């Protein structure tokens, strides 16, 4: 048995059956260098998924790693019971880049944990209990975050979820116009607010849905949502776990919509592979989180030192602008592909997806086609992702250090792959 197959077998023996993977046999990755990954046979892959939007600054980025290693050698961990410099510096830095007057940050470790904290904060601040969430959203795997996750396959077991959660349709549909989908969604929010507004603390949403299939919203949608929520004193929590830190061509994706949320949640790319997450809010709202509460590992010295160098690296290398420019380039190139399997190309910045579709002449479903594309692209040296409610969206979310040349070679390989599947 070869090395990857041995690992697959061990996973089957020792992991929970819930832990899946892409590909029949995934590559066994042994090294990473910026936008490239290498397997145990030294085959090179250009990474177009970045560990699900985490490695924005690239794998084992030498500039960032140097600070992580220095910090590891100096001081690993204390908790917030003692004073350290890095986490306060990080909180101050975040205040300078977070939108509007959001300036206080609570550090934790994972996206789920930060969303859970944000929702607890909303409950404490409003003294109300319920939530509104969008279909197609994903917010984590703790009880409360599972409860607001609007993708059936991720909800584990409906017995686990909390009550008083109201789902509304996301403003995107392949069968009606965007305008209609937006009106429908706004109408549903209004109805929920009219009927239950006095017991709803917040609406939680991703500014661009990641796992739900790279879904952006019409320009005015979030403005209208925010106004509706405000009229019922309901907060808006924006989950930027996947979209934060330059991914979409803005530092935070919410900036595309010209609104300031009440609470903003970030994770993944902040630590570029070292676990750290945050929920941040205004002075006023933060005052409601007034019982003792801290995360043991949240914002520990190693994570904070790393995050500080991540922010510095993003700024120094203009990764936000880079994501905007190259993202537009990638999207245009994908849009120019002509294949019967492409139903829609969508997204913004370096967060782009191809909605695939089946065609009459072949038996495969859109999910099968997506899997075939992933497999064939892997064989050609490109790791692309997939997501979507039916797992039929090919996702491109590379490290932001990707180059135009990487995009050119990926797209020409994709063109070849799509033609091969058609023939
Ligand atoms: N929110 C979003 C938008 C996510 O994409 C994810 C994970 N993919 C989470 C929350 C949960 O993050 P974590 O796995 O770090 O708990």
UniProtKB/TrEMBL annotation:
Domain of life: Bacteria
Keyword terms of this UniProt record: Aminotransferase, Pyridoxal phosphate, Transferase, Transit peptide
Enzyme Commission numbers on file: 2.6.1.44
SUPFAM superfamilies, alphabetized: PLP-dependent transferases (SSF53383)
Gene3D superfamilies: Aspartate Aminotransferase, domain 1, Type I PLP-dependent aspartate aminotransferase-like (Major domain)
CDD domains cross-referenced by the UniProt entry: OAT_like (cd00610)
Keyword Transferase set for record: yes
GO molecular function, one term: alanine-glyoxylate transaminase activity
Record's keyword annotation contains Calcium: no
Cofactor: pyridoxal 5'-phosphate
Matching InterPro entries: Aminotrans_3 (IPR005814), Aminotrans_3_PPA_site (IPR049704), PyrdxlP-dep_Trfase (IPR015424), PyrdxlP-dep_Trfase_major (IPR015421), PyrdxlP-dep_Trfase_small (IPR015422)
Pfam family, one: Aminotran_3
Subunit structure as annotated in this protein's UniProt entry: Homotetramer.
Similarity comment: family membership: Belongs to the class-III pyridoxal-phosphate-dependent aminotransferase family.
Protein name as it appears in the record: alanine--glyoxylate transaminase
Lineage of the organism: Bacteria, Bacillati, Bacillota, Bacilli, Bacillales
């Amino acid at each position: 048995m070869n090395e990857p197959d041995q690992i697959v077998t061990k996973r089957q023996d020792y992991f929970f059956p819930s832990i899946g993977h892409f590909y029949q046999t995934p590559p066994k990755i042994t090294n990473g260098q910026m936008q490239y990954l290498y397997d145990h046979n030294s085959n090179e892959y250009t990474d177009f998924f970045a560990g699900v939007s985490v490695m924005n600054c690239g794998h084992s980025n030498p500039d960032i790693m140097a600070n992580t290693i220095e910090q590891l050698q100096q001081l690993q961990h204390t908790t917030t019971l003692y004073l350290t410099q890095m986490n306060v510096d990080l909180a101050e830095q975040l205040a300078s880049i977070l939108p509007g007057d959001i300036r206080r940050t609570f550090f934790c470790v994972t996206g789920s944990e930060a969303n859970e904290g944000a929702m607890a904060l909303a409950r404490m601040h409003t003294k109300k209990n319920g939530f509104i969430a969008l279909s197609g959203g994903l917010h984590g795997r703790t009880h409360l975050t599972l409860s607001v996750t609007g993708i059936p396959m991720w909800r584990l077991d409906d017995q686990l979820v909390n009550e008083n959660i109201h789902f509304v349709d996301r403003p995107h549909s392949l069968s009606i116009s965007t305008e209609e989908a937006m009106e429908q969604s706004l109408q549903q929010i209004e109805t929920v607010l009219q009927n239950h507004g006095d017991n709803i603390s917040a609406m939680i949403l991703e500014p661009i849905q990641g796992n739900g299939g790279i879904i952006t919203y019409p320009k005015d949608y979030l403005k209208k949502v925010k106004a509706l929520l405000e009229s019922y004193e309901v907060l808006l929590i924006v989950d930027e776990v996947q979209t934060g830190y330059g991914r979409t061509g803005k530092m935070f994706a919410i900036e595309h919509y010209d609104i300031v949320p009440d609470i903003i949640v970030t994770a993944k790319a902040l630590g570029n592979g070292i676990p750290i997450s945050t929920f941040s809010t205004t002075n006023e709202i933060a005052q409601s989180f007034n019982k003792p509460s801290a995360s043991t590992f949240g914002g520990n010295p190693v994570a904070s030192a790393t995050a500080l160098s991540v922010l510095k690296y993003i700024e120094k290398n203009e990764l936000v602008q880079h994501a905007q420019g190259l993202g537009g380039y990638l999207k245009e190139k994908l849009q120019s592909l002509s294949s019967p399997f492409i139903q829609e190309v969508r997204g913004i910045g370096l967060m782009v997806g191809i909605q695939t579709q089946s065609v009459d002449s072949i038996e495969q479903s859109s999910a099968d086609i997506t899997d075939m594309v992933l497999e064939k692209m892997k064989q050609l040296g490109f790791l692309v992702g997939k997501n979507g409610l039916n797992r039929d969206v090919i996702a491109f979310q590379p490290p932001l250090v990707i180059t135009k040349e990487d995009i050119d070679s990926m797209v020409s390989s994709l063109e070849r792959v799509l033609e091969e599947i058609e023939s």
